[in-house]
């Protein structure tokens, strides 16, 4: 018999903050660079292409003594059924015995850890004086990107939000974001002055940004190479499946290029098409964990363009979920189920 701790979205919100997620993802990247964080091949299946699919990302964190997986199912017609569009479930297991430890609402963790990844790109690869951030995309995940960037980067204090799909500025959406971002920062005990504004002119916003986060499902790139200025950092977050691309390949051809997982980035990430087009070689890609552990250099001058592709790997989820699990056990949060 094994006792498994089940944690709901409400449980996760009570024990895990954005700052926790940033710490967890940073540690996961470091373990990966040291050979202690393993990202196993992704499993993907389309039940109905562009309508319903699922993917399984799995791996191991040796220093944390665990392995596990996250299963994400996307069914676009669910809202008409009164159901969420996405269901996510994470399973944590002990890597000594194989015993299951926790079954967790992954959606509650995914937002935090994905935001943390984009923010860590700025922290480790952006200019030290970066203060102006552009977030391109206005979906659910965009709010997490804004909050994480503000939490992880003390110098970022001006955030512009642009919807590449529309001509008008996303004013109403940004007003919704502001309260949620404030709540996330308060929960993480982050105190700073900042502003978040909606913009309609994407080209002008790209040209004036110190850092850019893209978070859309685009298959046609909308960040044009000739808009991108020397010294800017780009965290490309949205391209997490084959065929997606948010940033023109010309940027990768002239930038210092980084990824969370090199093989995945050229098969199902932002760097897939630049690699297939022959403008980017695999050995030109540095994993961000290698920068964090000081095994390879990141940015070496203020005029370099840096591009970070984070298509998402299981060690991010495992590290963040482990923090939530440990805190839930300590606080008596969640429900034990005997299998």
Strand content: 25-35%
Question: What's the number of helices?
Answer: 11
Distance between the termini: 6 Å
Structure classification:
alpha/beta
Q: How many beta-strand segments? A: 16
Secondary-structure element series: EHHEEEEEEHEHEHEHEEHEHHEHEHE
Q: Judging from the principal axes of the Cα atoms, what is the shape?
A: globular
Uncertain regions: pLDDT < 50 for 5+ in a row? none
Helix content: 25-40%
> What is the makeup of the main sheet?
8 strands, mixed
* Mean pLDDT across residues: 95
Q: Radius of gyration from the CA trace?
A: 19 Å
What does this structure look like?
This protein has helices spanning 9-15, 18-33, 106-125, 140-152, 171-187, 202-208, 249-254, 262-268, 272-276, 288-292, 314-331, and strands spanning 3-7, 37-39, 43-48, 52-61, 66-75, 86-94, 100-105, 132-136, 158-162, 195-199, 211-214, 233-236, 256-259, 285-287, 306-309, 335-338. It has 339 residues and is an alpha/beta fold. Strands 1, 2, 3, 4, 5, 6, 7 and 16 form an eight-stranded mixed sheet that branches. Helix 2 (18-33) crosses helix 3 (106-125) and helix 2 (18-33) packs across helix 11 (314-331). The longest helix has 20 residues, at 106-125.
What is the element layout, followed by pairings?
Blueprint: E1 3-7, H1 9-15, H2 18-33, E2 37-39, E3 43-48, E4 52-61, E5 66-75, E6 86-94, E7 100-105, H3 106-125, E8 132-136, H4 140-152, E9 158-162, H5 171-187, E10 195-199, H6 202-208, E11 211-214, E12 233-236, H7 249-254, E13 256-259, H8 262-268, H9 272-276, E14 285-287, H10 288-292, E15 306-309, H11 314-331, E16 335-338
Parallel strand pairs: 1-7, 8-9, 8-11, 9-10, 11-12, 12-15, 13-14, 13-15
Antiparallel strand pairs: 1-16, 2-4, 3-4, 4-5, 5-6, 6-7
């Amino acid at each position: 018999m094994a006792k498994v701790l089940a944690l709901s979205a409400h449980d996760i919100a009570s024990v895990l903050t954005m700052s926790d997620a940033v710490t967890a993802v940073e540690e996961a990247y470091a373990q990966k660079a040291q050979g202690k964080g393993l990202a196993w091949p992704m499993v993907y299946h389309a039940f109905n292409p562009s309508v319903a699919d699922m993917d399984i990302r799995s791996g191991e964190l040796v220093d944390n003594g665990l392995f596990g997986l996250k299963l994400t199912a996307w069914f676009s017609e669910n809202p008409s059924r009164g159901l969420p569009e996405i269901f996510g479930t994470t399973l944590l297991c002990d890597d000594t015995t194989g015993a299951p430890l926790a079954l967790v609402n992954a959606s509650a963790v995914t937002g935090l850890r994905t935001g943390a990844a984009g923010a860590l790109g700025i922290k480790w690869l952006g200019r030290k004086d970066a203060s102006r951030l552009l977030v391109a995309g206005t979906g659910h995940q965009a709010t997490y990107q804004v909050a994480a960037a503000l939490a992880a980067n003390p110098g970022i204090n001006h955030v512009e939000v642009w919807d590449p799909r529309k001509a008008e500025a996303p004013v109403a959406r940004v007003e919704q974001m502001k309260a949620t971002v404030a709540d996330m920062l308060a929960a993480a005990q982050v105190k700073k002055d900042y502003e978040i504004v909606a913009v309609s002119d994407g080209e002008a916003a790209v040209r004036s940004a110190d850092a850019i986060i893209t978070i859309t499902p685009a298959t046609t790139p909308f960040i044009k190479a000739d808009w991108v200025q020397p010294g800017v950092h780009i965290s490309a977050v949205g391209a997490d499946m084959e065929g997606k691309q948010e940033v023109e390949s010309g940027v990768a051809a002239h930038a210092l290029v980084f990824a969370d997982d090199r093989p995945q980035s050229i098969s199902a990430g932002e760097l897939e098409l630049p690699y297939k087009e022959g403008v980017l070689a695999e050995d030109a890609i540095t994993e961000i964990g290698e920068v964090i552990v000081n095994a390879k250099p990141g940015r070496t001058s203020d005029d370099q363009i840096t591009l970070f592709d984070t298509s998402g790997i299981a060690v991010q989820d495992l590290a963040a979920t482990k923090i939530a699990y440990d805190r839930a056990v300590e606080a008596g949060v969640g429900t034990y189920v005997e299998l």
